[in-house]
Amino acid sequence: MQPLFQRTPVLTGDNISLKRHEILDYFLVTFDRYQQLFDTLACDEAYYQKPITLRHPLIFYFGHTATFFINKLLLVRLIDERINPRFESMFAVGVDEMSWDDLNDSHYDWPSVAEVRAYRAQVREKISHVINTTPLTLPITWQHPWWAIIMGIEHERIHLETSSVLIRQQRLDYVRQHDAWPACRQYGAAPQNSLVDISAGSVHLGKEKADSIYGWDNEYGQHHAEVNAFQCSRYLVSNQQFLAFVEANGYSNANYWNEEGQSWQHFSQATAPTFWRKKDDSWHLRLMTEEIPMPWSWPVEVNYHEAKAFCAWQSQLTGQTVRLPTEDEWYRLYDVAGLTEINADERAPANSHLDYYASACPVNQFAQGELYDVRGNVWQWTETPIYPFTGFDVHAIYDDFTTPTFDERHNLLKGGSWISCGNESRRDSRYAFRRHFFQHAGFRYVVAETPTMIATSHYETDKLMAEYAEFHYGDDYFGVENFSQALARIAIQAVAHRPVRTALDLGCASGRATFELARHFQHVTGIDFSARFIAQGVQLAEQGLLRYTLTEEGELVSYKERKLVDLGLDSVRAKVAFFQGDACNLKAQFTGYDLILAANLIDRLYNPSKLLHNIHQRLTMGGILLLASPYTWLAEHTPRNDWVGGFKKDGESFTTLEGLQAMLSPHFRLVQTAQDVPFVIRETKRKFQHSLSEVTLWERIK
Amino acid sequence: MQPLFQRTPVLTGDNISLKRHEILDYFLVTFDRYQQLFDTLACDEAYYQKPITLRHPLIFYFGHTATFFINKLLLVRLIDERINPRFESMFAVGVDEMSWDDLNDSHYDWPSVAEVRAYRAQVREKISHVINTTPLTLPITWQHPWWAIIMGIEHERIHLETSSVLIRQQRLDYVRQHDAWPACRQYGAAPQNSLVDISAGSVHLGKEKADSIYGWDNEYGQHHAEVNAFQCSRYLVSNQQFLAFVEANGYSNANYWNEEGQSWQHFSQATAPTFWRKKDDSWHLRLMTEEIPMPWSWPVEVNYHEAKAFCAWQSQLTGQTVRLPTEDEWYRLYDVAGLTEINADERAPANSHLDYYASACPVNQFAQGELYDVRGNVWQWTETPIYPFTGFDVHAIYDDFTTPTFDERHNLLKGGSWISCGNESRRDSRYAFRRHFFQHAGFRYVVAETPTMIATSHYETDKLMAEYAEFHYGDDYFGVENFSQALARIAIQAVAHRPVRTALDLGCASGRATFELARHFQHVTGIDFSARFIAQGVQLAEQGLLRYTLTEEGELVSYKERKLVDLGLDSVRAKVAFFQGDACNLKAQFTGYDLILAANLIDRLYNPSKLLHNIHQRLTMGGILLLASPYTWLAEHTPRNDWVGGFKKDGESFTTLEGLQAMLSPHFRLVQTAQDVPFVIRETKRKFQHSLSEVTLWERIK
Fold first, then answer.
1. Of A54, A91, B134, B592, which cross-links A63 as Cys (Cβ 3.0–4.6 Å)?
2. Using one digit for the tens of pLDDT, what is the confidence trace for B5-43?
3. Cβ(A661)–Cβ(A537) under 8 Å?
């Protein structure tokens, strides 16, 4: 057996020279082990023929991890020039699945394997030199320039695994067995799977920025959850256990597949797991460098859809709710199994970190408490799409490591596989893949009545929605006070001694004024025509936070997270309710308000007179109506004939204020003279709308 | 003969009671004389059958002048309530020619003549009461509330004339002769016309706000002109003289008509003047209330097109340049003829102010110096489209009196007719009509080599053009310094001790920075892709001023005039030159500059790299390139692949500044760190774009 594959280093300490040496070693063993992976390719053609249609050929991945070091070290100025600009453009992007036109082969003129190997040698030399010679201080933290070095190493370790999957997907005649990559030779029969009772408990996830071990952006922040009791399969589902599903024609029974799974199945025409091969009527399994008779005791390797279909089939058979665990449930298993981090200097108590095999092994080889393979062997799919913890932040030099996967289409898989190493093998690590992707990944199942909750991972990227989120909950610009706060303050001043039971924020958009009014009113209703706006208010009320991207320049964005608690609004969450509704045709239930606020609303209505002629019916006698508008009348929102003012009427200029007076005077008196309140909407880092909204206060007197 | 019809009053003095009485009289005689005009209508149907398809029936005009008093007095708060809101809506607008759909009869349910007469009596009472009882101070000036009263009276006097034209256009059996409206009975033969030499001289037009006589907005401001010597017809062109043109088939000979005149002639199918009637092979003339055998010695009455066609025919016959006079030339005639204002207490030395007839009279009845009828008899068309004098301003309660006619489609006519009275009969007055309109108007002609100049009357109303005019030459908002000034200052500082021969303002838009740079450079070239923008710079360089409307709210606008002299830029007019050009493909001549300024340009180009890769060729060695941009990259302006930055490049954020450095570094060095310079573009009274432009300075070093 080989020596232990070096673990990810602790980044604190006071022996600079030792740490420098440890990091150099970590770099070299990783860089060399990655390069050694490509020694399993039997010929140069293996580098250029794509294993998977929609992904680059292996030559790209061979160069990519080296280029990544150069690009990131340039960003932190640990180096100041490129080694090979052409290679470093070619190898920079394209890791993920691409669309057919990005991959048009004519766009690429790949260099030879020898050239890339020579390039890798240059990079190895360069990075070694940086590590050897650049002044080092400890600890190495998130902002430390050396963070980029660890990032590069951990990035290469991820590709060590993903490239091993691509090699496993490459034609068999293009690969060869290699002593450094020995598969397990223990096959045998699978044990009968059974359910283990897991008691309820709380899990604490997340990581402080001050943590002493390198982490990716998605690990930071905080997440706490109470996990109900559930039952869990003792073993990962084995090839043996999965065979029953295959033989029950599970792949072709639409009842077991959800819509997304079904369309994958139709596309792929799969009838069995992707690495299964039928030869002369008996099943074989494709490993990384060979095909072997089916090792029935090994974990089956499938994508999320196949795992989920198996659970649906099991649910139907047993009458129980069989499903995949959530991420929280997996952490409960981790705790219940009494796992701790893999030690630096002893072989892992799991088929992990390349400590044993270059393949899976029987599902009953590594007991962890009452369970087996909570960690290691193959990854385990969960029901949980990856989402950011509260406090999530992107890293400045790698803002698209996780953010593109916050789309509720990338599910977390946990536990790591036989080749997961470095950060990948840590408890904190969180990796997610598209649900149809294949990794060295299988699953275990749980029986639980608790429905799975999908946490919000969504970063609002729609331009208008994100701009309004920032407008309501974000920074101030040009020294202009938050508009919703200013209006709420004016409204509350105007209400003075009057009752403060209920208020209506009509045209509430993202809902900031709804929350602000709830500081003073017992209950506040927010109504908007747009369900997308309402969703922002609802999310804040339910989850207390909102995430969105802000355009900086062109396509470059920054990532924002805003929390009610930071705005001092957490305590009013229960006092607000949001509804979708039409201000020109309000449902009867919305009435009896002590205050109605209509901010930047009237000039966006299709028929403002319908609102203005009837709004008194929604207010208590003596109640206050606050109208705020820049009077930006546009025919695209309001037909010209329905404008309240801003035109010549009977030959004379007729302002909106005059129009409001005409429409409201039967039931209202103008409480004080109109005032302009400024507001700023950020469009890009350098472009803003800066407007003045005319605020008028009306007391219902009839 | 009737007593003299009261003249427009002097609005200064110290006898309040006397002035109040004079104004009351002026109101009453005007109001009653107008009402008396309608006594020439033979029956009630005459009020409802339209004389002219595209104009309201006479019932509208009967009510309109009364409603005008109410509307304007409400605006200045001399009264505080309406007399009849329905009438006052119905009679408020629709004086001018309308489109067929505005006039759809079903929109109008006109009241009876008796009802309108009763309404007029109420208004007469009300206005009399206001004049009798409202405190009065003298002088009555432009801002004085009583200005509205004089405005109402002068407005009614205008309609006295225009309604008399409509009555003249009404069916003959709908009108009747009336003792108060006696036509001239002197016919005779026309004198032979001849040319009178008019010496060169200067004319001074315009009026101070402090002038003691009421004036319409278009009279104020200043205009000075030197008029070259010319020859002028002694008489107005008579019916006799015009007959030759009719008999020469002048109406059907396209050579005599310009394009606009020809399309009027095609539409109208006119073959003779509109008030001419052929009966039993002999010509008759329609007057206001009768038809008479053609009075050959009277002036012919035609529109501008017919007058111009006559001149074209005369030019062809004589080989001389025969044309209509300009407004300036008409004022030269006024001075040469030794005219002065009509006296308050003696009959006018002209067929004017209803002092003689309710019709024209022979062209040789009123000698004025060597000429006849410089003033009076019928209006005289000029070649001059009405335009605002420098210093023009709209009156707050009547901002659309003249502004809609600043369209180069309304030509001035001068001198007044037999019915022109009050302000209309004053030297300062300036009235213009659409060129195809008929009034009691004819013409005299001049022979002159001086081409007619068309002054700019145009108020830029195009949203983008007007916003940029304000952005460059208008007010500051939010305390943000004028952007062009700020950039010019930064550029001039950066240039420091370097040569300051020539500068290029690339993408100059409205050209403010071009002028600002000319304070320091010997010559500055402004180039923009848009001819419309260039036109603003050219107009400023040539005429020193720019006029545009600003959107206030909805369709309401304000009128702005900006002058170079007020910006301290009048002295550099000769140092600038504007060209239309493509920054991505500059003509070879634009080179050798010591400074190039490109403000808010690069993110609006279809291919910025073409500019950036070649711009060094346009600069002297050591010259400075100033780039300013908010980097608002949009695919609609710049294809995504041609953005300079603002995207992920090879996986890493690539800013525009990095892109600029990459493109410019072969020839430039960045002189100092980038700085943000703010700018504000006003869209409405309450809506602004507030942006930051990143300014970088580059010195050409290779």
1. A91
2. 999 999 999 999 999 999 999 999 999 999 999 999 999
3. no
CB contact under 8 A, B646 and A556: yes
ipTM of the complex: 0.75
φ, ψ for residue A167, nearest 5 deg: -65, -40
Which residues of chain A are within 8 Å of residue B695 when distances are taken between CB atoms?
Answer: none
Q: How far apart are CA A250 and CA A315, in angstroms?
A: 13
Residues of A engaging B, defined by a Cβ cutoff of 8 Å: 71, 75, 88-89, 92-93, 397, 399-400, 478, 552-556, 630-633, 643, 645-648, 650-653, 655-656, 676, 680, 684-694
Residues on chain A touching B685 (C-beta within 8 angstroms) = 692
Q: How far, in Å, are A386, A475, A484 from residue A541 at the CA level?
A: 22, 20, 17
Contact A161, A440 (CB under 8 A): yes
Q: A576-580 and A523-528 as β-strands: parallel, antiparallel, unpaired?
A: parallel
In angstroms, rounded to a whole number, what is the distance separating the alpha carbons of residues A290 and A47? 18
- Which residues in chain B are closer than 8 Å to A646, comparing Cβ atoms? 552-556
Which of B90, B690, B696 to mutate to test binding with chain A, by most A CBs within 10 Å of its CB? B690
B554 vs A552, A633, A684: nearest CB: A633
Residue of A nearest to B654 (CA): A556
State which H helix or E strand residue A225 sits in: strand A221-227
Q: 3-state DSSP call for residue B596?
A: strand
User: pLDDT tens digits, residue range B161-203?
Assistant: 999 999 999 999 999 999 999 999 999 899 999 999 999 999 9
Q: What is the pTM of this model?
A: 0.76
Burial call A36-46: b when 16+ CB within 10 Å, e when fewer: ebbebbbeeeb
Considering only CA atoms, give the Rg of chain B: 30
When scoring A686, A693, A695, A696 by the number of chain B Cβ atoms within 10 A, the one with the most, hence best to mutate, is A686
Q: Give the count of alpha carbons within 13 A of B289, CB side only.
A: 19
CB neighbours of residue A546 within 10 Å: 28
Q: How far is it, in rounded angstroms, from Cα B474 to Cα B466?
A: 10
Identity of the residue in A400, A633, A686 whose CB atom sits nearest the CB atom of B692? A686
Q: Mapping DSSP to helix (H, G, I), strand (E, B) and coil, where does residue A508 land?
A: coil
Q: What mean pLDDT is predicted for residues A673-679?
A: 96
Asked if the Cβ–Cβ distance from B687 to A687 is below 8 Å, we say no
Q: How many CB pairs under 8 A join A and B?
A: 127
Contact B554 A647 (CB under 8 A): yes
CB contacts of A687 in chain B (<8 Å) are 630, 632, 689, 691-692
Which are the contacts of A630, defined by CB distance < 8 A and separation ≥ 6? A600, A603, A691, A692, A693, A694, B684, B686, B687
Chain B residues contacting A, CB < 8 Å?
71, 75, 88-89, 92-93, 397, 399-400, 478, 552-556, 630-633, 643, 645-648, 650-653, 655-656, 676, 680, 684-694
Nearest Cα to A298, choosing from A251, A364, A243, A248? A364
Q: What is the pLDDT of residues B317-365, one digit of tens each?
A: 999 999 999 999 999 999 999 999 999 999 999 999 999 999 999 999 9
How many other CB atoms are found less than 10 A from the CB of residue B566?
12
| B334 backbone dihedrals φ, ψ, rounded to 5° | -55, -45
Q: Residue B89: its chain A contacts at CB < 8 A?
A: 650
CA dihedral sign, ordered B548, B552, B557, B560: negative
Q: How far apart are CA A542 and CA A643, in angstroms?
A: 37
Q: What tens digit of pLDDT does each residue of A64-95 get?
A: 999 999 999 999 999 999 999 899 988 987 77
Work out the burial of residue B457: count CB atoms within 10 Å of its CB; fewer than 13 is exposed, 13-18 middle, 19 or more buried.
buried
